Amino acid sequence: MSDYDDLIHNLRARGHRLTPQRRLVLEALQHGDHHMSADEIAQTITARYPSISVDPTTIYRTLRWLRDVNLVSETSLGQNHMLYALLSHHDHHHLVCEICNTVIEIDPLILEPLRLELESRYGFAARLAHISIFGLCAACRR
User: Fold this and answer.
1) Is 97 helix (H, G, I), strand (E, B) or coil?
2) Which residues of the chain are in CATH 3.30.1490.190 domains?
């Protein structure tokens, strides 16, 4: 069974309806090799299925739904729009340079002490699955 089939099976098992639009957005995200904007998702769908008209409102609504059911992460990497990616089986985080827009993926274990401290000090169970931290990269700090 493919990852896409697993996603579909998971959603159906949880009682969710899979409209054609939801399937198209999931498929575009599954085949994307990077975080994608809603526009890129629409372009991917149109390129793959030229006869299908894609309504931006439907894509945004579908992305919000996928975020709410914890299948998609929504993040800003400093490009003035949100980016989306399927939540994978591993957490990942980014350092984003505010000057040159370089994005550096960091080891998720680096945030584990923060998660433990939040739970210990505040009783808060943080979901640290996908975080972007903004600042200056080493090159721009010079």
Assistant:
1) strand
2) 92-141
Nearest to 5 by CA among 27, 36, 25: 27
CB–CB of 94/133 below 8 Å? yes
Helix axes 56-68, 20-31, angle to 10 degrees: 80
Q: Which two tokens stand for residue 59?
A: 């894509």
1.10.357.10, 1.10.10.10, 3.30.540.10, 3.90.1150.10: CATH of 3-86: 1.10.10.10
Give the other-Cβ count within 10 Å of 6's Cβ.
Answer: 10
Dihedral angle computed from the Cα positions of residues 86, 89, 95 and 96, in that order, rounded to the nearest 10 degrees: -10
Cα distance between residue 14 and residue 16, in whole Å: 6
Q: Is 129 helix (H, G, I), strand (E, B) or coil?
A: coil
**Quick count: other Cβ atoms within 10 Å of Cβ 23?**
15
Per-residue pLDDT for the chain (142 aa), expressed as one digit of tens each?
A: 456 777 778 788 888 888 888 889 998 988 877 788 899 999 999 999 988 888 889 999 999 988 888 788 787 766 677 888 887 645 678 888 888 888 888 888 899 999 999 999 999 998 887 788 889 999 999 8
